[in-house]
Amino acid sequence: MISINLSSKTALITGASQGLGAATARRLHQAGANVAINYWPDPESQNQRRADELVEELGENAIAIPADVRDEHAVDGMFTQIKEQLGSIDFVVNNAGIVRDRTVLKMTSEEWQQVIDTNLTGVFHVCQQAGHHLVDGGRIVNLASISAVMGAYGQSNYAAAKSGVIALTRVLSRELARRSINVNAVAPGVVLTEMGRSIPEPMLEQMKAQIPLDRFGTPYEIANAILFLCSDLSSYITGQTLHVNGGWWA
């Protein structure tokens, strides 16, 4: 019998107070890992409450860590705090992201920059610190998107950021290979998280019609792929983008 056992391992999941991040934290914790649940410390959001509730749900070996991934100093402090509370860090999952959808001709510079800063520069900041703090043999999993290869309408900022994540993943996999740190990306299709449900219903129906499995994915189906890439079962996989989209393609 083959099982995934991450006991004594520690994982950081960014943007983990809800959606895919929360599902990933639950999956890795179920496999035995300690989990650090990062959230954006925006006082106008429900992020802290959701993160604290998730920690309470998981119980032992789970902590909530506020940090804005756009701020390199905050990210540095987050890694230091995790090591102080949970010990060495084995896995980093870059999940934090936002959308500011609008066509190119109508998109503001602020909407462009907000998405690039969070979804790409934020990933760079976390990966940079992961390179300093991860144990040899660790794993980095970056969340990309089907938008990066399809060029989804109204998502020039998001698609550009996620394409950059895929390229960053390939480069970093080469740079960290000497330490046996595997770096991969997971590119989901539409998943009905809070972000997915913000898509207008007529557009969702059009999208669903293009998916051979005739349904959208669940957060846990994406989390399962991340769990696999954190496990020893993926030991010879690095620099790759795993598309988890029910067969939907460009």
Structure summary, number of beta strands: 7
Portion of residues in beta strands equals: 15-25%
Q: With helices defined by DSSP (H or I, 4 residues minimum), what is the helix count? A: 8
Whole-number tally of structural domains: 1
| Structural class category | alpha/beta
Poorly predicted tracts of residues: none
- How would you sum up the major sheet? 7 strands, parallel
What is the radius of gyration? 17 Å
- Tell me which CATH architecture applies here: 3-Layer(aba) Sandwich
CATH topology: Rossmann fold
CATH H level, superfamily name: NAD(P)-binding Rossmann-like Domain
Helix % is: 40-55%
- CATH class identity: Alpha Beta
Cα separation of the termini: 37 Å
- The coarse overall form would be globular
Describe this structure in words.
Helices cover 43% and strands 17% of the residues. By secondary structure, the protein is of the alpha/beta class. It has a single domain, classed as NAD(P)-binding Rossmann-like Domain (Rossmann fold). Strands 3-2-1-4-5-6-7 form a seven-stranded parallel sheet, with helices on both faces. Helix 2 (47-58) links the parallel strand 2 (34-39) and strand 3 (62-66). The longest helix is centred in the middle third of the chain and has 25 residues, at 109-133. It is globular and about 45 Å long. The model has no long low-confidence stretch (mean pLDDT 95).
